[in-house]
Amino acid sequence: MTTATQDQGADIALVHRRHADPATITLEGMGARAATLGADPIGAVSALWEQGARHVVLPEPVDLSAAGDGERAVRALVALRELTSRAIAVEWRLHLGGDAEAVTPFRHLAPPQAVTGVPDAAGLLDQWRTDYFFGACVFRRGPGFLQVRDKRDGQLSRITIDEADFIAAVDALEAGAPADAVSAGIVGDLAAEGLVGRAGAHVWWTPCRVLRWPTPAMLF
């Protein structure tokens, strides 16, 4: 697969429906509708949820290869994080630039329908699907702190962030940002914990925001 023909200046298109079951397509009000992500993917997904979207298709592959547009890829990944947070069914594809480890910071997102660009793409996708479960890496905010709960490796790790400069960095990274807009040291520290993803010269905050507890809070 190649993504060289993508119009990088165009907006990111998507299609949304009120239900993922194909049997509902012909029902009144349940058909597919076109939309775009715009410059604010967080706001766009929130609006889709309010409109009743429960199934979203991103026709354009997310391209993390050297030929891809990093800002564009980050907007798509931020949208995927928000869709995953709301348990909205999503269909998407991922193109890698030869580095299978690039998926490590966001393997808690809903797995794609296809992966290309690495030698064992099928094996990578199978493992992603096997390991995936809702709420694998989430965060919540409190007064003056935020806490990440990460179970991507099978055991629960709790990371509490209460330094003002780190919280400000997370605020900037949540919607994605150029790497040089955030302290390199802070980005490095967060990336070491798998909490930051990178696409080209852009970086983004990978944990999903907790919108509702998938299990009793004390068990999670």
Automatic annotation (TrEMBL):
Which Pfam families does the record cross-reference, listed alphabetically?
Answer: DUF5825
Q: What is this protein called?
A: DUF5825 family protein
